[in-house]
Specification:
By secondary structure, the protein is α/β, with parallel strands linked by helices. It has 14 helices and 13 strands. The strands form three sheets. An eight-stranded parallel barrel has the order 1-2-3-4-5-8-10-11, surrounded by seven helices. A hairpin with a 3-residue loop joins β6 (260-263) and β7. α8 (163-172) packs antiparallel against α9 and α12 runs parallel beside α13 (354-373). Bound molecules: beta-D-glucopyranose.
C-alpha cells in the first residue's frame, strides 16, 4: 500500500493509530487490586465500581473502534485478575483476555499491550510491593504466564506505564496506594521499576526467540512533560528546569539505552542489559512552568514549584493542565538522538466541550505530521482515551474520551472529535 510507512525497525508496519485505555479505568469490578482497596477506604472522591463495564462490553467497544477505522488499540492486562491470590491463577481471566485478543484480531486491530498500568494485586502490595527488589520476581512470573499465553497475538508490549508518575503519586505525594510519602521509598521504587522493565524486556525477547515467533517490540510508556522556566532570566529557574527535565523526562531513557544509571546521591549502577528499548513509548499531555523554590516537599531536594497560577491566560484542560502542542514537536525532535522509532502511547485532553478536543487533536497531530516531515520516525499515535473513564483520584469527572459514556446507562456515543482523529490519521498515512 503506498503512503507513509514507519522507517527503521517498523519498516514492515503501517502507522499504528487509534486510542488507549487501561484495565482499572474501564473494565469495572477489579476487586483484587490495591486501587480497589484504596477506594473502599474512602481515600479518593469516587469509587471505580463498574467503571465503563468494558469487561463485559469489549466486543461492542471493539466493533466501534473498527467502525472508526483505527488500526491499533492499546489496553492493559489486569495482573490481579490473573493472580487474585499469590500463586493462585484464575483460568477465567485467561479465557477472558483470550476472547479480548480474538475480538481485536477479528476486527483487524493491532494490540499494543501494557503489562502494568498503576495497579497491583493486593497480595503483592502486602508483600511490600515495589519497595522490595526480590518482589520483581512476582511480576516476572506473571509476565511469563501472559506472554506465553498471548504472545501469538502480540507484537507490541509496554512493560510499565509511566513509572515516574506512578512512583511520584504512590510513594512521594502519597495520593495513590500505598499512600507513602518518602524520598527514600521513591528512590527504591524508581530503581526496582527500572530493573523490572529490563528483566521483563529480556524475558519477553527470550520467550519469543524460544518459539521462533514473529518479531516483538518492547518498551515502556514514559510520561514526558514540556518544561519551561517561569522566568527565563532566572538562573535558579533554569537550573531547576534542567535537573527536573533530566530526572523526570530523560533519565529512564538514558539508562535503558546506555545500560548505565547515575542518580543524585552519587549512586551509580550498571543495568544487566545495555539496550532494553525497541522503540520509545511516549505519553505527552502538557507544559509545566517551573519556578525554583526553597519550599520543601517537591522533587529534587526541595527546590521546585509549579507556576503560574490558574489566572494566567493560557488554554487549559478540564483539570487545569496547560495545552501546548509545541511541546510535542519539541519532544519529538529531542528524541532523535536515541535513534529509535517513537510510539505515542497517550496524548489527549479532558474537556467538557468536544470542540476543544477537536482543536487539541488537530494541533497535536499537526505536530506529529511536521515531525515526520522533518525525518522523525514516528511509529504511531494513540489518543487517550477511547472513552470517558475512571480518572484515578479525580474520579469520573474528567472526560477524556472520543467516545462519551453515559454513566447511568453505560451507553456509548461517538463524539465528533473521533471522526476528526480518523480523518487526520488517514491523511497522515496517505502522505508519501
Ligand atoms: C495515565 C492515564 C491517565 C491519563 C490522564 C496518564 O498519565 O497513563 O492512566 O488517565 O494520563 O491523566
Amino acid at each position: 500500500m503506498p503512503g507513509y510507512s514507519v522507517p527503521d525497525r517498523f519498516m514492515h508496519h503501517t502507522f499504528l493509530w487509534g486510542s488507549a485505555t487501561s484495565s482499572h479505568q474501564v473494565e469495572g469490578n477489579n476487586v483484587h487490586n490495591d486501587w480497589w482497596s484504596w477506594e473502599q477506604k474512602g481515600a479518593v472522591i469516587e469509587k471505580s465500581g463498574i467503571a465503563c463495564d468494558h469487561y463485559r462490553r469489549f466486543n461492542e467497544d471493539f466493533a466501534l473502534i473498527r467502525s472508526l477505522g483505527h488500526t491499533a488499540h492499546r489496553f492493559s492486562l489486569e495482573w490481579s485478575r490473573f493472580e487474585p491470590k499469590e500463586n493462585q491463577w484464575d483460568e477465567r481471566a485467561f479465557d477472558h483476555y483470550g476472547e479480548v485478543f480474538q475480538s481485536l484480531k477479528k476486527n483487524g486491530i493491532e494490540p499494543v499491550v501494557t503489562l502494568h498500568h498503576f495497579t497491583n494485586p493486593v497480595w503483592f502490595h502486602e508483600r511490600g510491593g515495589w519497595l522490595k527488589a526480590e518482589n520483581n520476581a512476582y511480576f516476572l512470573r506473571y509476565v511469563r504466564r501472559v506472554v506465553e499465553t498471548y504472545g501469538k497475538y502480540v507484537k507490541f508490549w509496554i512493560t510499565i506505564n509511566e513509572p515516574i508518575v506512578y512512583l511520584y503519586y504512590s510513594y512521594l505525594a502519597g495520593e495513590w496506594p500505598p499512600g507513602i510519602k518518602s524520598y527514600r521509598a521513591a528512590w527504591k521504587v524508581f530503581y526496582h521499576l527500572l530493573l523490572a522493565h529490563v528483566q521483563a524486556y529480556r524475558l519477553i525477547h527470550d520467550l519469543y526467540e524460544q518459539k521462533s515467533a514473529k518479531p516483538v517490540y518492547v518498551s515502556l510508556a514514559k510520561h514526558w512533560t514540556e518544561m519551561r522556566p517561569d522566568n527565563p532570566n532566572s538562573i535558579a529557574d533554569r537550573v531547576t528546569v534542567f535537573s527536573r527535565d533530566w530526572l523526570f523526562n530523560r533519565l529512564y531513557f538514558d539508562a535503558l539505552t546506555s545500560g548505565f544509571l547515575f542518580y543524585p546521591g552519587l549512586f551509580c549502577e550498571y543495568l544487566p542489559l545495555r539496550q532494553s528499548l525497541d522503540f520509545l513509548g511516549i505519553n505527552y499531555y502538557t507544559l509545566q512552568r517551573i519556578r525554583s523554590s526553597s519550599k520543601t516537599g517537591e522533587w529534587m531536594g526541595a527546590m521546585v514549584e509549579h507556576a503560574p497560577g490558574a489566572d494566567s491566560p493560557v488554554e487549559r484542560n478540564q483539570m487545569g493542565w496547560v495545552i501546548h502542542p509545541e511541546g510535542l514537536s519539541s519532544l519529538l525532535k529531542r528524541l532523535r538522538p536515541y535513534h529509535l522509532p517513537v510510539l505515542i502511547c497517550e496524548n489527549g485532553i479532558c474537556a467538557e466541550n468536544d470542540e476543544q478536543r477537536v482543536r487539541y487533536i488537530q494541533s497535536h497531530l499537526q505536530a506529529v505530521t511536521s515531525a515526520i516531515a522533518d525525518g522523525v520516525s514516528v511509529a504511531g499515535y494513540l489518543y487517550w482515551s477511547l472513552m470517558d473513564n475512571f480518572e484515578w483520584a479525580h474520579g469520573f469527572g474528567p472526560r477524556f474520551g472520543i467516545v462519551e459514556v453515559d454513566y447511568k446507562t453505560l451507553q456509548r456515543k461517538i463524539r465528533p472529535s473521533a471522526y476528526v482523529l480518523t480523518e487526520l490519521c488517514r491523511k497522515l498515512m496517505a502522505q508519501p
